[in-house]
Each structure stands twice: as C-alpha cells, then as structure tokens.
Amino acid sequence: MTSEILEKCKKAHELLAADEACKGYAEQTAQLIDKLENQAMTVSIIGQFKRGKSSLSNAILEDKVLPVGIVPITSAVTKVVYREDKSVHVYFKNGAVEEVDAADLSKYISEQENKNNELGVEMVVMGSPSPFLKEGMEFVDTPGVGSFHKNNTEAAYEYMKESDGVIFLLSVDSPINQIEIDFLRNTNDFAGRFYFAVNKTDTVSESDLNAYIDYCRMILCELMGTEDVKIFPVSAKTGAGIEELKNTVLTDCRKNGAAILEESAEKKLKEIITQSLKQLDFYWKAMNMPYEELDERFAAVQKVIEEIKETAATRNAIFELYLNEIKLQLSAKILELFGMEYHYNIKELPAGMVTMNKDQFLKQVDEICDDLVDTLNRILLYREENAYTVVRRINAINRLTRSLKRLQE
Please, which pLDDT band fits residue 180 given cuts at 50, 70 and 90? Predict the structure, then answer.
C-alpha cells in the first residue's frame, strides 16, 4: 500500500522536475522517494563537540572503527554500513572516490590532520560487521557543533537534514547550552525520531547525575513540545547504559521504521518545498533585474567560462575529475551572481577510472559551458523579444508556485 507522504513526494518531484530552475530540489525529492520505497533508515549521532560522539559510536557498534582523541577530532561525516569486510572509502566533493586503509582514516576525518577539511572530503563510508547494523540501518557519526572550526559545524548542520533517527548526545561535564538548544531546534525540522543520551556518567555521583538528567528533561520537554522525554544515561568508557540505548533504537526501528521514515520524509519535503519557493523568488528577482545589471552578470559568467576553457586546454590528466570541478565552479558562480542554485550531478569516480581522452574532454567542457549559457538565457528570458515566449514562461512559473504552495499547505 502506497503511503500518502510517498504520493506527495512523487507529486513534488513531478512539479519540480518539470522546471529547469528547480532541478536540484527535484533530485532531493527523488532521494526521499528512494528512501521511502526501500525503507532505508539513517540514524545519526549528533551534538556539540567533545561530548564523546565517536567513542559512543564505537561502543554502540561494538567495533573500534572511529578514531577518538583528546581534542575535537571529527571534521567530516563518517557513515558506517553493515559489511563483513571493514573496507573504507573516502568520497571527495569533486567526485573522486578512494579506498584507504582503516589505519589511515584519521588523515581524512580528523581536524588535526585534515584542517578545515582542506582535502575536500564529502563523506567517509566504512564497513563493519556490527550486529547493530545487520538489519540494514546506516549509522552516521557527525562532526560536533560549536567548536572553533566553523567547517565542522557547517558539515554537522548539513548532514542533520539527511537523518531519519537521531541520537542526540549530551554530557554531564557541561550543562545543556544555547548551541545545543539551537542545533536541536534545527534538527527537529528534519528527523522523525529522537533518542536523548547523556554521556560520561561514570564521572559524577548518582545524585548529581539525577539532578543533571532532571534539568535536561525539563528543557528538552519544552523544546520538543512534549510532557516527557526518555533520557539514556550512558558511559562510552565503561559501557554502562549502552545496551538499553541500542535495544531501544533497534526495537523502535523494527516496529515503527515505516512511520519514522514517513515523518522524517514529511519534514524534509516541507523544507524542500520551502526552499523551492525561495528559489523561484530569487529567480523572479534575477529575471526582473535591469538589462544593464543583467548584462554585467552575464558578462561575468562569460569571463569565467573563458577562463575555464583556457585552463582546460592545458590539462593533460584526470579529465573526469576536472569536469566535476568545473561544474562546482560554475554552480558557485551562478549562486554568487544571481542568488540561484544551479544543480549539476557530480559523477562519482573511483580511483583509476579514466575513460576520456583530451578531445572528448574539451568537447564536454564546451558542452557544459554552452548549456549553462543557453539555460540561463532561457529561464531568465535574457534579451527575449518574443512576447509569447515571455508570457508562457511567466504563466509556467506562476502555476508552479501555486501548485507548490498547495502541496505545502
């Protein structure tokens, strides 16, 4: 039986995919549809830095797969999936995929060795034979928010949008603070289920722990709009409380997995529609710029394209990766100049995958650049003199906006 939220996701995808200005949001709805149809659950452990997320993750998985340290360490999202082998693959923002030795993992996900994520790591995916993952759950360790390293907070905020279930981790060595409150409020807009855990319970007395939990419960009930929340006191160091937390998450996902995914998808779909409407608003503003201003911005796009083609002519290797980098560069420029998200699919390229010669590469560079200019001309009606074309485009945008608002309501 098809769920109502799945049908709404499909309707949103149909609407968004029909308009070039919203291709990126159409892709996001396609991912929601895939999660619902395949019942693919993602549980993330999130919270402020130095709460012990990586240590707790290892304890939950019963597998020391994630590096831990005395200083804020995790700088990139790490996804752990069920596999008998413990292979580790690093996914880079430019599409490159490298298999690395588990012993070298910290080179890619630690702030000490990959400062400010200078390597451009998008995500690390690693295998573990953990019983916790055996039923198909994806488990994600995220960078902590609130540290000195801004990119860590940005990565955590970005990935919370992908989570269906969340283990929100607090710690007895610090009262719940405004950073955690703000992060929880934002996360509540995307995730379908929350499990609250308090770590480092082995460092305080029972009376102090009870007082801390009572204080947290009062704040969390208010934030979550409920009369009570269950809080799991745990110690990643001694293992205390870990089994109860694990069993609660697993039992809930078995019994209520479909409902959790649907609630998560509903929240995410609302956000996608909201962002799509904002995109259309940016589109209107760009389309209604004075011609002189549009001329300047199109000239800036053309200058970037000329620089890209000039540089491309000197490239002699890894053409596929450079094509991805060109797409990222053009997307960033369109956002800067027009305030619009211009979506490209970034092709994943495992190490050693080279299938393109220099002539094919230069041809694709030309095609990517020419297609961008043609698309901008078309969706922004730049120098369009055919009144019928203009009216049709305006009507199409108005219809899309009205349809999205109805779906949003």
Answer: confident
